[in-house]
Amino acid sequence: MSQEPASALERLFKRGAKVEPAEIPAVVAAFLLYFCVLGGYFAVRPVRETVGTILGAERTADLFVATWIASIAIVPIYGWLCGRFRRSAFLPWIYGFVAVSLAAVGVAFRASEASVAAAQFFWIVISVLNLFMVSVFWSFLLELFSSSQTTRLFGVLAAGGTAGALGGPVLTDLTVRFIGNDGVLFMGAGMFVGAIVCQRVLIRIWKRADWGRDGSAVIEDRPMGGNPFAGFTLILKSPYLIGIAIFVVLLASVNTFLYFAQLRIVSEAFTDTAVRTQIFSRLDYTVQTLTIIFQLTLTGRIATKWGVGSLLTFVPMLMIGGLLLLASFHTFAVLAAVMITRRVGEYAFVRPGREMLFSRVDTETKYKAKNAIDVPVYRGGDALVAQVDSALSSAGMSAASLALIGAGAAAAWTVNGVVLGKAAKNRAAAEAAGEAVAAP
Hints:
- By secondary structure, this protein is mainly α.
- The chain has one domain: MFS general substrate transporter like domains (Growth Hormone, Chain: A, Up-down Bundle), CATH 1.20.1250.
- It has 13 helices and no strands.
- The longest helix has 60 residues.
């Protein structure tokens, strides 16, 4: 194996993070895999946002509940796959399923984009799958890399997704007026076909005899067995995992309050649906441009110097101020600034920090409990806040008051982040001292 970076991408990795020469092939493969996954999702995400503005806030609030129910249903199916099949077999299947689903919805939209049933089905499917496929990606990386490697590398690996999340909406912005929303869905499906190829390459690296997690033995690729519902029971038995679940619920709460503010403000400001799709695309690639700069230069260094807790608390603190500002000035310009700040912070700091929390848990927890937190727990927070927002809005509560409630959720999120950061620091210290780390 060459000891020198062989490409501009690899040289960038070397400058932006402390990537060891032996780690470069796995880092490049994982970077490209995440590029395809988030590139495909963010190419179609503006279409979902446009569908939400067409359906309206009340109907979309009900879709949050339907999405939560669907996310609960997917957990035992995923648990069954984990228990019956090797990871090298079922991981590529997941991205194949996403590609087929997007293509099928594209066919339905081509036949009748005005169909409410097709729009609702698409909104639910993409809202469930986006969390699920990202959770699966990180679960595998947590198995591939050691806890010390995750601190150094997860920032730069997250940048692969951000690069895809930048490219996807740019392509949508440039092409949607020519190929339509159905064509955008076909384009997204094609990117997930690329994800399958990247996943196979990464699995081959993982199974090589000379690949190990900081030199340790290669992990056996075999079915995990166990109960398909084990993810839920693992969470309920662990204060540490319960703390992570609460963190995710509070994160989802703040995001959902902002989402419904976005529905109201964008619907009033822009009447043309194609223009709305372009606006959402431009917000997306503005966010991703800023995020990738932070991920390549700051995330890993901040986590190494100040710990995971710094990644978990910075954004919630900013959201307290952002939602207070939105309560005072309920305009598109303020909304755009708050949304960009929230999403840049989440992708650059919060998401890598969340994944690092799972770096010192066993394989079953990394796949089953993590997936349960990332999908049904997250979507449960969405569903609850969506119904609260809809009920309060219908009762006559002002947009400013709703933003103030969101600021309160952000304050609770900040406190929870501090607690989780301390717990992660204690587990790392115990591991460094050679003590047995308590079960998660």
